[in-house]
Design brief:
Shape: globular
CATH class of the largest domain: Alpha Beta
Largest sheet: 7 strands, mixed
Number of strands: 14
Order of helices and strands: HEHEHEEEEEHEHEEEEHEEHH
CATH superfamily of the largest domain: Carbon-nitrogen hydrolase
Radius of gyration: 24 Å
Helix content: 25-40%
């Protein structure tokens, strides 16, 4: 006999225990997702996160929120996460400093790169600066905003556009009001960026799509999370593990090639590499640009290696070489 309880109360007690157990299971953290094993995947893939928690606010509160989001990104196997411009307020601090050091601990813990935009105190000057932290939690570089918005109260960069080498590819960083100045985006193309991250206080809109298709790199905006494909279209699919965080897997090996001088080369390449690469898009009524877009379909295969094998320039290589040679002919007064 049970003391203090009657037998008819047992089902209710069991139901309570079952509900409590189910609730505990639903609240338990999900198993961490491992990072991509690029050696077993076609092309050159990388997982990125845009953490769109907004500009400014109380430093300590926003830093806690950012660290919580970085934990989520790390648990989802992200290779590189980007926070918004001056996400933790506008009080200047050095690099390294309290904010970058706190973020660096999460970067090291999860073996991921983090773009950490702060207001930087550099001697007597202040800059709107995006700090790149590497997988080991070390400062790997920084970009200072070139076109500062009216009333920000910071100095304008004198160093210009930079790109950074990572273990998955080459990235550029431009910040907010920089969107309005195509020469900066052109310079990222000159430097062969694979991805341009854009930490911002607002969404940006269609000009970002234009930059992506014009220069054939991915754009990762960190204002509204509208990650943009090299085709200039919104990327699909995008994972949303929580509100204000957007994760996507990008294949940096996907490559455009122009129709000019390449038709027979491409036919031969596709015949010889069936099952290894495919044409993702070509000239159509919807898109009149005379380009192919190729991607690898077999693990360990790289489109760019196969293009090189067949003497086919990527669209970017073709445009860069053509600009250089045509400008040289112009200076010499030669005919093309």
């Amino acid at each position: 006999m049970m003391k203090g309880r009657t037998m008819k109360n047992v089902p209710r007690l069991l139901l309570f225990v079952m509900v409590a157990d189910m609730l505990a299971l639903s609240l338990a953290p999900a198993a961490a997702i491992p990072q991509l094993d690029r050696t077993k995947l076609p092309g050159r893939q990388v997982k990125v996160a845009a953490i769109c928690i907004g500009f400014g606010g109380d430093h300590d509160e926003k830093l806690r929120l950012a660290l919580d989001h970085l934990q989520t990104a790390g648990d989802n196997g992200v290779d590189i996460a980007c926070l918004p411009e001056e996400f933790a307020g506008t009080k200047a601090e050095p690099v390294p400093g309290p904010t970058t050091q706190a973020v660096a601990e999460l970067a090291r813990k999860h073996n991921m790169y983090v773009i950490c935009p702060i207001r930087e105190q550099a001697g007597e000057r202040e800059y709107n600066t995006a700090v790149l932290i590497d997988r080991k939690g070390e400062v790997a570089g920084y970009y200072r905003k070139v076109f500062v918005f009216w009333g920000e109260g910071v100095h304008c960069s004198t160093e210009g556009v930079k790109v950074f080498e990572t273990d998955f590819g080459r990235i550029g960083i431009l910040t907010c009001f920089d969107l309005n100045y195509p020469e900066l985006w052109h310079k990222c193309d000159d430097f062969d960026a694979d991805i341009v991250f854009w930490p911002s206080a607002y969404g940006g809109g269609s000009p970002l799509n234009a930059m992506a298709i014009l220069y054939h790199y991915y754009v990762v905006p960190v204002g509204a999370g509208n990650i943009i494909d090299i085709t200039g279209k919104p990327l699909d699919p995008i994972e949303k593990p929580r509100a204000k965080q957007f994760i996507a897997t990008l294949d940096l090996d996907r490559s455009f090639a122009h129709y000019d001088f390449n038709t027979e080369k491409v036919r031969k390449m596709l015949d010889e590499h069936q099952g290894q690469i495919e044409v993702e898009r070509k000239l159509s009524d919807e898109d009149l640009a005379p380009w192919w877009l190729f991607r690898a379909t077999q693990p360990g295969v790289r489109v760019r290696d196969i293009l090189k094998e067949h003497g086919i320039e990527t669209l970017r290589e073709y445009q860069h070489r053509s600009r250089k040679q045509i400008n040289e002919a112009r200076e010499k007064g030669e005919r093309i």
